[in-house]
Design goal:
It contains two helices and no strands. By secondary structure, it is an all-alpha fold. It has one domain. The longest helix has 66 residues. This is ATP synthase F(0) complex subunit e, mitochondrial.
Amino acid sequence: MSAPLKHPNTVVLQPPTVTISPLIRFGRYAALSLGVVYGFFRLRQIREYHADIREWEHEKAVVAAEEAAKKKKWLAKDEMRYLMQVVNIPFEEGVKQFGVADLYKDD
């Protein structure tokens, strides 16, 4: 394969190379290394802060899940009682027939 064709009027001009002062180069690398060190320490601070936030959010989620489970169980109990009432089955017999004794263990 041949190289892509260039327009004959294309002229690439490159600027002349400039030597940079060793003091300026040292300053650049010093600033870069200080930035890396600062970033390392700042990242550690942020991680600790966000670890506290994640722990707090996890505790909130656990509490919300417990409340949702209680509400779900309560709704299931209510639904089963309504179903037993509609079908005219005594409560104890309905619990045995429907196999929902685990819902009423607390009662």
